[in-house]
Write a structure and sequence with these properties.
homodimer; alpha/beta; Rossmann fold; 6-stranded parallel beta sheet; 12 helices; disordered C terminus; DNA-binding
DNA sequence: TTGAAAGCGCTAACAA
DNA sequence: TTGTTAGCGCTTTCAA
């Protein structure tokens, strides 16, 4: 008899159904068709299994087949609209394919990224999605070494299949819109558009910054170095830099391009100290979308990145067995002020 | 020689270091101390392992030890500030303890909750955290049946250890603040506070609704049934009901208690259509906190739930091996309008 | 202080 | 059409 409390195994089902373990295995995992097991035998076995509450032990199967059914995702952070949206679509899509998703967050630390990947390898993941990696090439190297299927998302690797949103196009759209809409201001220090936030060492940021510079140069003749304040992603830093800028140029600039939601949140903690009138002479845009961010006291242009499409394309690349370094671009969308995009927050709360 | 491309096993390390597999196993998993293996033998083995890039196969260990090192979390949704904050703290804390976190989201469907739990069981998870379950008792039963350690978060089970935020206290605080601050309004239909959103069948909602009713009754003498519009968590529904309410009572109510961020997002899509003056005669509060929600065109009182504490306490309950149904309460915090809480979004972007 | 060997639950040759 | 058996990589007695 089976040890009580523990789950039944195929040996239990074999005994109970009068079949052999291998027949049970085949009947239960679907391979009975080509193992030429009689329909009724298979059915009898399935009935017994159901009655006993059998469910397969994926560890054992994984060990035997050298495929775990686990798929990993490496993320910088979880509590960030963009990344949590990625992880949402990732888990949904993984389970939909019968895979079990495992997520690690690394707080943008290269060492942790490598450690995380190694942890995931211990669990014998079959493939991994790497989003927003600060050191893509290191991770890419490890994946190639151990022959692990992988795709980069958001921040690409030169050595691996990658899918990113089209940062250059998105940033150009936003910069142009800001410059077009900017009011004329007397003070020359405030008459220019500024960019706040992001890390120029990271691919996404550098693309956005370059696109901002280009748009400014094209539409305004030139772009000064002081117009780009790439102070990183930490809200507190963005808050400081926002304050410093306002002090330096004597008020809000005519145009402000904020690079990412965390930077925006930081800047906001200073912006809210300003009188409402301060915003009359200023146009603000943020690269990234937040439904509440769209309804602040002042209007904000936002850029929405299609995280669903990013994940879908990443899975598609894996499906087609991509190994060579391709770079897929997903176009982002410019969202006018005071607009709620449908279905951005979970429809199910 | 080892098959190229595949990871080295303890047998490879054994051969290379001239020790036996069992000695290697002990040297590498820390049990060498009480297996009385010589310090230098252990060191030699570890050196070889490091040189070969050995990392343990958790599937094999799990199979042998009947402990996988996996810990599961079941969530209704991922792209929701509260739940994504829970999952963030969960993954962080799990990895910190050397456990591998696996998250499933169920879209508030009882069937999916059961299916998800069974999937996790196939992966031989050692324990599971169940957050926001619509049918806690069904899940509780399964866990007890298979002897799986588990804790409920946010929505409790009567049969299992649970940790929830103190919905009654939080809702009472918010309701009282709204009622105290509410302006006097001539139209009697608009002079009362209303509650919008939430599902009265769910524990958290029902507690909040009851607390709202109590506070209203206590401070205003009575609470009419039409003051509670528990229309669920879907933004679109909340938008409809917001519009209907405004039509019915001829404008914004003097006090509006919005139950949850998704309901708020829905309501917002209608609120933004109103002229700014409409908000002068109204006080709005939302149960749940969002940093951008705190800076809308109108002031909003918000309630912050301590998701970090929820997760910590849940792990603590597991640690102490709790099996009996205890219910722990974590107090939430009332956040005044236009306030950014530190560290709510990821400090690291 | 170390090694040999059995076995965790499953799959896949190979036999029958 | 089904059964027997070896083995995935690890841990853990038991023996040496």
């Amino acid at each position: 008899m089976r040890r009580t409390g523990s789950k039944p195994t195929i040996y239990d089902i074999a005994r109970l159904s009068g079949a052999s373990p291998s027949t049970v295995s085949a009947a239960l995992n679907g391979s009975w068709k080509d193992r030429r097991i009689r329909e009724e035998t298979a059915q009898r076995i399935r009935d017994v299994a159901a009655a006993e509450g059998y469910s397969i032990n994926m560890q054992a199967r994984g060990l035997r087949k050298a495929r775990s059914g686990l798929v990993g995702m490496i993320l910088p952070a979880h509590d960030n609209r963009f990344f949590s949206s990625l992880s949402q679509h990732f888990t949904t899509e993984a389970w939909r394919r019968g895979l079990c998703p495992v997520i690690v967050s690394t707080r943008r630390e290269p060492q942790e990224e490598v450690r995380s990947l190694e942890s995931l390898l211990s669990y014998a993941i079959d493939s991994v999605f790497i989003a927003g990696a600060t050191d893509p090439e290191a991770l890419s190297r490890i994946c190639h070494q151990v022959g692990l299927a992988h795709v980069f998302i958001d921040l690409p690797s030169m050595q691996s299949p990658s899918v990113v949103s089209d940062n250059a196009a998105g940033a150009a759209m936003l910069a142009r819109k800001i410059i077009e809409t900017m009011p004329a201001v007397d003070d020359p220090r405030r008459a220019k558009p500024y960019l706040l936030g992001g890390d120029p060492r990271l691919y996404a940021s550098s693309r956005r910054i370059a696109a901002f510079r280009e748009a400014v140069t094209e539409m305004r003749g030139h772009c000064d170095d002081d117009q780009v304040i790439a102070c990183g992603y930490v809200p507190a830093r963005a808050a400081e830099e926002m304050e410093r800028l306002i002090d330096r140029i004597g008020g809000l600039p005519a145009g402000l391009f904020i690079n990412s939601i965390p930077a925006f949140e930081g800047a906001l903690s200073h912006l809210v100290l300003l009188p409402p009138a301060a915003f009359a002479q200023s146009v603000i845009g943020c690269y990234d979308y937040d439904p509440f961010g769209a309804f602040l006291q002042f209007p904000v242009y936002m850029v929405w990145q299609d995280s669903h499409a990013l994940v879908q394309r990443a899975f598609a690349l894996l499906d087609q067995g991509a190994k060579t370094p391709v770079l897929e671009m997903i176009p982002p969308v410019l969202v006018p002020p005071r607009t709620i995009l449908p279905g951005t927050l979970s429809e199910q709360g």
